[in-house]
Amino acid sequence: MNFGLVCQQCKEPLQLDASLIDLAPSAYDTIAASLPPSPTQHTRQLTNDQKLAQVPASPYVKAAWERSTSSTASATNKSSSPKLTSRAQGKQPQRSSDIPSNESFVLLQDSVIRNIPSAPAPPTRSKKTTATAPNIFNSPTSPTQFEPDQSSPSPLSHHLRSAARVFNLLSTRTEIDHPLCAECTHILLKTLNRQLEETKKERDGYIAFEKEIRKEKEREAQALAKEEAERKIEKLQNEERIAIEQLKEAEREREELDEELRLLELDEKALEAEEAEFWRHHNDQLLVAEQQTAQLASLRAAYAADVATLEKLERTNVYNDAFCIGHDGVFGTINGLRLGRVPGVPVEWAEINAAWGQALLLLYTIARKLDYTFTSYRLVPMGSFSRIEKTTGDKATYELYGSGDMHLGRLLHNRRFDFAMVAFLDCLKHLIDHIRSQDSTVEFPHQVIKDKIGDVSVKLQFNQEEAWTRSLRHVLLALKICLKWATNGTNG
């Protein structure tokens, strides 16, 4: 049954327990006897700082007490902010910051204050309860719905008055306004348990404070004598003098270290300048080395090109280019000039004379390369008008060129031409003998005997043109073999 009661904390409607509806006088007396006496306003308003100020003790002991209590309070504040749950969480009234932690005031909402009329409090209720607690029989929705009728009492009004006496007694003897719902009661129990823990810690602080006071009294009782104090002062003065000397010594060491630091800084600057000069010189050396490397690479490339050119030149036989000996049909040729005559192929004497001039020049060149000197003749190469001079005997001169004229003077000239060709063949024979003496492995296919080479005479008179042409071809072949041996790298 709901009698219009509301929780004095969260303002939610309450329903009384069945044990409170018909409370016996003996039960009421038992509840009243178990409650503590009503606290006074003066004792609730005393704070820890005020209590500490009233205690006669030295500032050192009070500072020790404040340090012990501050560490306790910091550990307590971290876990002392309970949060309301369920429906009481959103309707918990805020508490002013200047109210001490041991005071308990309930701040009512404006709507509750307007709707609930004030009622005279019982004479035994404290000032706080009268000012803050509303009438437990008034509801925010209908303030006079359950007002008892004094003229005609009923069982309902009797039960209400009995519950009202119990709630007023509880509110008067304690710091909590009743009635409370189950959730607010649970929160209240948590708060009371926390306060109990804080009270225990406060008791421990008082015990520590008492111990500090006793120690301070013991130290004051055991004060040093005057002589001992003077000895202590003298000792302290000696220590001060020693400390001053040590300080002066440290200052001298500091000055020495500053001077050493200055010298080290100068050395560092000198080393930095030397290092910069070293790196500059190093960079110059690197540039010079790079230039020399580039120059060396250029020289090596030029050397490689010159070596290739030299190898090419070494492989090139200038004598073969200057004296190209070959054949054209039955004719032997030197530099493209035919040497000889056959019937049906008229070869001009100018071409024959030029070919003889090239042959004489070749024989002269081979002898000069081999550093060989003919003992009986001296070769005079002069192109188409070359001649051979005899160096012994009558020192005659023989022209190595012919003519096709048939007059008497030309016949004598052709005879001298025959003598010149025989002298040429004699010089060739001596050169062949010299080459054979130097290298016996050289083979000549035709043997030279007097005016014949390969059993064919080199004379033109009284000789057939085919035989004469064949002998001249043998002469060119012998010259080619001599030239090949003379131009070999191991000879000459």
From TrEMBL:
Domain Atg6/beclin coiled-coil per the UniProt entry, residue ranges: 179-308
Compositional bias (Low complexity): 68-81
InterPro entries, sorted: Atg6/Beclin (IPR007243), Atg6/Beclin_C_sf (IPR038274), Atg6/beclin_CC (IPR041691), Atg6_BARA (IPR040455)
Keyword set includes Coiled coil: yes
Compositionally biased residues, Polar residues: 82-103, 129-150
One Pfam family linked to the record: APG6
Gene3D superfamilies: Autophagy protein 6/Beclin 1
Keyword Coiled coil part of the UniProt annotation: yes
Atg6 BARA domain boundaries: 313-487
Keyword annotations: Coiled coil
Coiled-coil regions listed: 182-277
CC annotations in GO: phagophore assembly site; phosphatidylinositol 3-kinase complex, class III, type I; phosphatidylinositol 3-kinase complex, class III, type II
Sequence segments annotated as region (Disordered): 63-103, 116-157
UniProt record similarity statement: Belongs to the beclin family.
Protein name, per record: Beclin 1 protein
Biological source species: Macrolepiota fuliginosa MF-IS2
Lineage of the organism: Eukaryota, Fungi, Dikarya, Basidiomycota, Agaricomycotina
